[in-house]
Design goal:
Blueprint (H helix, E strand, L loop, with lengths): L2 E2 L6 E3 L14 E4 L3 E2 L4 H11 L3 E6 L13 E7 L1 E6 L5 E6 L3 E4 L5 E6 L4 E6 L12 H10 L17 H5 L4
Antiparallel strand pairs: 1-4, 2-3, 3-9, 5-11, 6-9, 6-11, 7-8, 7-10
Length: about 170
């Protein structure tokens, strides 16, 4: 089983709707150095996400263009290397992420890779529900996203710490 501190607490960021990237009133979560990736980092992160009920797992990086997902939440586990990623759209925040970090993006959260090390590798996954959609920041996509984002269910588990993870407390709907 992947080495994760059971008392890990993510950093939280709330990004405002900027008129093109809707973001989400629920916070973006960033676990820094939460996962001991070991000798096979991609498999370690895949096992962690899968054991916590997050599926449709993939390996890649983060696209170098601004985008968001309007029908599903997403988790990104950094397996190797590091990158500077803009989260929350043009008015959000550029954050450094590195091997062992896990970012959890509520539906609508903008993201774009600004720069990355040559070995940068990410494992992504989604909670059960609709398939991933990819939206670019346009007025038409934004208008549609404002209708779909509120319909996306809060996951039953935190992809890092499972049923008792902070996501369940931090993402409670008002």
């Amino acid at each position: 089983m992947p080495v994760v501190s059971p008392d890990a607490e993510p950093q939280t960021f709330v990004f405002q709707d900027d008129g093109l990237v809707p973001n989400n009133p629920m916070p973006f979560l960033l676990y820094k150095g939460a996962v001991g990736v070991g000798s096979n980092p991609e498999a370690t992160i895949e096992q962690l996400f899968g054991s916590n009920g997050w599926g449709a797992i993939w390996r890649n990086g983060v696209y170098d263009f601004a985008h968001y997902h309007a029908t599903v939440h997403e988790v990104l586990g950094v397996a190797r290397g590091s990158a500077r990623v803009q989260f929350g759209g043009a008015h959000g925040r550029a954050l450094e992420i590195a091997a062992g970090d896990v970012a959890i993006l509520p539906a609508g959260t903008g993201h774009q890779c600004l720069s990355a090390s040559s070995d940068f590798s990410v494992v992504g996954a989604y909670p059960p529900g609709p398939p991933m959609d990819l939206q670019r920041p346009t007025p038409e996509n934004h208008a549609r996203a404002l209708r779909t984002i509120p319909l996306v269910a809060v996951p039953a588990t935190d992809p890092v710490l499972g049923r008792d993870g902070p996501l369940l407390r931090l993402w409670k709907r008002a």
